[in-house]
Design goal:
The longest helix is centred in the first third of the chain and has 27 residues, at about 50-80. The chain has seven helices and no strands. It has helices at about 50-80, 85-100, 110-130, 135-160, 165-190, 200-220, 220-230. The relative contact order is 0.07. By secondary structure, it is mostly helical. The chain is flat and about 75 Å long. Helix 4 packs antiparallel against helix 5 (about 165-190).
Length: about 230
């Protein structure tokens, strides 16, 4: 039995929701409204829906206009690609991250997560070489690759492993906390700063404590049941 307002699971003996105070409504106490509608349904009425492919085709066309417009204007003014690569690349990257999965009825995040990180890495590589930077191979590439592998592994475990979500999320939080320290060292190495840890302790400690808490949720059954009933975790 669940609360009709907030959805929290209720015991059979409870008269009101312990979370929001809503009175418990039992099925045999509910009165059905059996009154006929004021007019009979029109037999020829058909509920019209939107074509997903048609909508995505229209959105793709609308994204293509500024993508090409930036390239054409930049080429007409400068005779070469100067700034339009950043603008058009940003539009293309946003399309891949946000709109590409909408083409599929049931997009698989295990596939799209690494594709998205690969697209982000390619865009950063273009930006780096376009501005003659020296931060892609020593900073952007390892960071994007590490985060991509981390999120892909977490997504695959959550999707294909039944149960054990507190353990998966707890381990993921611990790994993310551990990544904070090499992240700061990569920043110091790339931008030639003193190799001393300054800020990585703080997010690392937060992710560590969160990971420990999630592992305790998985180990301690009463705590796990309380989290499941109150927070649907």
């Amino acid at each position: 039995m669940y609360c009709v307002k907030c959805g929290v699971e209720l015991a059979d003996s409870e008269k009101a929701c312990p979370l929001c105070g809503t009175e418990v409504l039992l099925p045999h106490n509910l009165k059905r409204d059996l009154a006929e509608p004021p007019y009979p349904p029109y037999p020829g009425a058909v509920t019209e829906g939107f074509s997903r492919v048609g909508v995505m085709t229209l959105i793709t066309f609308l994204c293509l206009i500024p993508f090409l417009l930036c390239l054409i204007v930049d080429w007409k003014i400068n005779g070469e690609i100067v700034w339009s690569g950043f603008a058009s690349g940003g539009i293309l990257l946003g399309y891949l991250l946000v709109l590409l999965p909408s083409w599929f009825r049931r997009p698989n995040p295990v596939i799209f997560v690494p594709v998205d990180f690969a697209a982000v890495g390619l865009f950063l590589a273009y930006v780096n070489f376009a501005v003659d930077g020296n931060w892609f191979l020593t900073f952007a590439f390892p960071v994007v690759a590490a985060l991509g592998l981390w999120l892909t592994a977490v997504t695959a475990l959550l999707r294909y492993v039944r149960g054990g979500k507190p353990y998966i999320l707890g381990g993921a939080s611990l790994c993310l906390g551990a990544l904070m320290f090499p992240l700061e060292m990569l920043i110091h190495y790339t931008f030639q700063r003193p190799a001393i840890l300054h800020w990585s302790y703080y997010p690392g400690a937060v992710f560590f404590l969160l990971g420990v808490f999630l592992l305790l949720v998985g180990i301690i059954r009463p705590l796990r049941e309380h989290m499941r009933r109150k927070l649907f975790f």
